[in-house]
């Protein structure tokens, strides 16, 4: 199978870099085809500008409309088109990053901002005029997974931890980017206490990552509800008989039954988090 690995860490001698190297070796050893986007090594430009679209700077820039026009006309900046070609080629996308200030590094956010333009990442329509998103879109049929390191302990990012539950912290990426554009999303691989990992524990962490990657095309994805699957009304609000009494992020999982139920996806996430 064909896998795109997107990584965002500035230090080539980091834990993230070592894990990436071992993971890519294992994937190639399993006869997968690999392409990579090491954003810091590429010196990726994370800033959206008029130059992305060949836009006249003397005119007002409407980013959505102009990016969609450039996509249609084939005038997007060459670096954006190169990343879109990688995405089109891939059967699965791995995105690896350290969690900084409750989110992804700016360079990775800028990759999504620049590559997922209107008509590619959003703003797609069916022939009947309905929107294609949340389970449908340009990237439908592909799989996606995050590999995320963070400095806190596993417990501090658990259901009652002060840092917040990790599957909720990653919801904007998993649901708001991957699922939005149509990709099936696998539970993340979480590397806790990453800034103080003893060398003797590294082989176990690497082995857990490689084991998860072995199920990239077979493991069950997170059970997000699709927009056009009948769960939402015309205002894109859940019907009253879907997960009654459940609100917030949890309601948008198809297996949500109560506000206190620990879902299968949450169990898997917590188990992966305890890597030591």
Automatic annotation (TrEMBL):
Record carries keyword Lyase: no
Stored Pfam families: Flavodoxin_2
EC numbers for this chain: 1.-.-.-
TM stretches of this protein: none
Enzymatic class: oxidoreductase
UniProt GO molecular function: oxidoreductase activity
Keywords: Oxidoreductase
Domain of life from the UniProt record: Bacteria
Keyword NADP recorded: no
Database matches in InterPro entries: Flavodoxin_fold, Flavoprotein-like_sf, NAD(P)H_dehydrogenase_qn
Domain (Flavodoxin-like fold) ranges: 1-195
PANTHER family linked: NAD P H OXIDOREDUCTASE-RELATED (PTHR10204), NAD(P)H DEHYDROGENASE [QUINONE] 1 ISOFORM 1 (PTHR10204:SF34)
Family to which the UniProt record says this protein belongs: Belongs to the NAD(P)H dehydrogenase (quinone) family.
Protein known as: NAD(P)H-dependent oxidoreductase
Organism expressing this protein natively: Rhodococcus jostii
